[in-house]
Amino acid sequence: MINFRTTRFLKSCPSNKTLPKDLAAEVAFSGRSNVGKSSVINSLVGQKKLAKSSSVPGKTREINLFDINAKCRLVDLPGYGYAKVSKKEQERWGWEMTRYIMERENLKGVVIIMDMRHPLTALDRDMIELVRDSGRAFAFLLNKADKLGKNDRIKTVKKVEKELESMNLPAILIPYSAEKKIGVSELAKLLSGWME
Length: 196
Ligand SMILES: Nc1nc2c(ncn2[C@@H]2O[C@H](COP(=O)(O)OP(=O)(O)O)[C@@H](O)[C@H]2O)c(=O)[nH]1
Ligand SMILES: [Mg+2]
Known about the structure:
Elements: E1 8-13, E2 25-31, H1 37-45, E3 63-67, E4 72-76, H2 87-103, E5 107-115, H3 122-134, E6 137-143, H4 150-166, E7 172-175, H5 184-195
Parallel strand pairs: 2-4, 2-5, 5-6, 6-7
Antiparallel strand pairs: 1-3, 3-4
The chain binds guanosine-5'-diphosphate (GDP) and magnesium ion.
Magnesium ion binds near residues 37, 38 and 60.
């Protein structure tokens, strides 16, 4: 099992051109703006402020890379679907993201983070298609589980599982709360399996 506590910030890249050498195993986090990507990374590494989290959506406009150790990295991809960003900028980011996911040699898997209260939006489905086309391993985190009661959590997991099956995409689903630290050890185990 990987020790995530040693994770350090490596680099922010405004485009694929400035990415560090493709020499370490990477796992990437993707999701709608404000879904809690940065918070999930912080909860995983047990540090409050490693990835910048903010209540203002759409702030992360870059590919942020973190070194877990000499051989493994975490990658925070730009959030999608923030309406106040221009169409042109969103499009450019779509291309950067597509390129990273399709071409990155040492990308071992993608974690698609969704809000447990609003899973599988149209933009999430676009991301799912992209990841499927790339042939990468992937899994889903249903974040903000603390906002739902126990019964609604169970219902949501069943509903999402069913929909993914109907898309012919059986996948790992982890109910998660970055705030209440629910699902952290499952996530750590999953990523360790991908990278080791
Ligand atoms: N209740 C709750 N709020 C969360 C959780 N994860 C993130 N948030 C909040 O959601 C907002 C966006 O989080 P952030 O990590 O910046 O999202 P990002 O834009 O996807 O990186 C912040 O106000 C967080 O405090 C969670 O598990 N539960
Ligand atoms: Mg963020």
